[in-house]
Amino acid sequence: MSERRGGLGRGLAALIPTGPPPGSAAPAENGAAVAPASPAGPSGPEDKGWFAANGAAGAQGGAVAGAVYREVPVSQIKPNPKQPRHVFDEDALNELEHSIREFGLMQPIVVRELGADEYELVMGERRLRASQLAELEAIPAIVRQTADEAMLRDALLENIHRVQLNPLEEAAAYQQLLDEFAVTHEELASRIGRSRPVITNTIRLLKLPLAVQRRVAAGVLSAGHARALLSLEDADSQEELAARIVAEGMSVRATEEAVTLKKSEKPAKPKPAPRKPIQAPGLQELANRLSDRFDTRVKVDLGRRKGRITLEFGSVDDLERIVALMDKNQANQTLETD
Hints:
This protein has helices spanning 90-103, 125-133, 148-161, 167-181, 185-192, 196-203, 210-217, 223-229, 235-248, 252-264, 283-294, 316-337; strands at 68-73, 77-78, 109-115, 118-123, 138-143, 298-302, 307-311. The chain is of the alpha/beta class and 338 residues long. Mean pLDDT is 73; it is low at 1-65. The longest helix has 22 residues, at 316-337. A 5-stranded mixed β-sheet has the order 1-5-3-4-2. Strands 6-7 form a two-stranded antiparallel ribbon. It is elongated and about 125 Å long.
C-alpha cells in the first residue's frame, strides 16, 4: 500500500481507530471503537504544535485520542461558532437532503462534547443542515476531544478539501489562523497543503474595496479577476474595472490586459489653479462708492498688469439708466473744467 499523503483531509481513519491497537481498551458494548482517553486541554498561547515541522500527533493519519462513534440527537448539536464558511448553495443542500432521506447520512459528522446532552459541531456543517432539513431526529457522529484552538483549523481544512469556501471566506479564515496561531505564511502553507504564494495572494483579497469584495463573495467575480484588480493601486479604479467586468463579461485574461492598459495611461495633467485677484487696499471701498453712485452691484478686480470694473444691470432699461448716469457725470466734469 502506498504511503498516506500528508496535508488535507485525514479521513475517518484519522478520527476513529479501525481496530484496537496494542494496549488499547476493548471496544464498547455498542460496537463503537474507543481509543484510550488522554488529557487534551487547550494548548497554550505559544503552542505551535500543529504547525511544528515534525507535525502534531496524528498529523500523518494516526488515531485521535478519545474519539468515539455514536448516534447524537440533532437538537443537541450546536453549530461551530468558528465556521469559516458563510455561504451555502441552496440547490446543493436540497440535493443532499434528498440523498439523506433516501439513503441516510453516509458520512458521520464530527462533534465535541460540551456537557450533558450538549455537543458542538467541529466538521460537517452542510451535512448537519441537510439532516435538519430532512427532519432526522439523530445522526451518526464521531465525538472527539477538540481544543478551542482547533475548531477553526478543522473546519477550514474540511472546507478547503471539499472546495466549499468562496475566495473571501478562505482569505478571512487564513488570516484568522495566522492571527490565532501567530505563525508565518510558510508555516501555515506547509500544514494545510497549500503553497506560500497561494496563501499570500488569497489574503491580499481582503485589501480590495468592500464593493469589490461583495462581488467576489457572491461569485460574480472570480479569484482570478480579483487578483488582477489588486494590481491597480487606487480603489476607484478597482471598483470601476470590477463594474466593467460584470457588465461586459470579461475573462480573467481580458481583465489582466485592461489592468496593464490602465497602468500605462499617463495621468491627466492637473488644471492650473486660477490666479487669485490681488487684494489692493481701498479696492472694496472704491467698489462700494461706485455701487452707491450707480445704485447697482459693482466689482473691482486688479490683476498684475490691468484691472477690471464690472457693473451689474437687471434689464435694458436698467442699463440705459446706468449709461445715463455715466453721461451725466461726464458732462458735469466737462463743465467743471470749462
